[in-house]
Amino acid sequence: MSDFFLTVALVLSFAALICFYRLLVGPTLPDKILAAQIIGTKTLAILVLIAVIFDNMMFIDIALTYAVLMFVLIIAAAKYLEIGKVIE
């Protein structure tokens, strides 16, 4: 079962690399923000898979903290796109 989770983690890592290319080459700012959000989501899934593979719940705590930081990032990016400033 651990081999299956490891394979899924490797596939997600490869998909994150593809999204990283989109982050570097994306033509517009919303494309780059979306690519960064997708990379963050894939990283979150990889952290949860690592927690399952190594049977270590500390990675779940790290993943939850990372999810909150991603939420703040996307709110700041949306505010920047709408207003032009993050902090008024």
Note down, in words, how this protein is organized.
The chain starts with a helix and ends in a 5-residue tail after the last helix. With 88 residues, it is an all-alpha fold. Helix 1 packs antiparallel against helix 2 and helix 2 packs antiparallel against helix 3. It contains 3 helices and no strands. The protein has one domain (2-83). The longest helix has 26 residues, at 29-54.
Shape: flat
The description of the largest β-sheet is:
none
| Element pattern in H and E | HHH
Structural class: mainly alpha
What percentage of the residues does DSSP assign to strands (E)? under 5%
Give the integer mean of the pLDDT values: 90
User: What is the total tally of β strands?
Assistant: 0
Number of helices: 3
* Cα radius of gyration in angstroms: 15 Å
| Overall tally of domains | 1
Uncertain parts: none
Distance between the termini: 50 Å
Q: Helical proportion?
A: over 70%
Index terms:
88 residues; mainly alpha; 3 helices; 86% helix; flat
Strand and helix layout:
Blueprint: H1 2-25, H2 29-54, H3 58-83
Helix pairs in contact: 1-2, 2-3
Question: Quick gist of this model?
Answer:
The model has no long low-confidence stretch (mean pLDDT 90). The chain contains 3 helices and no strands.
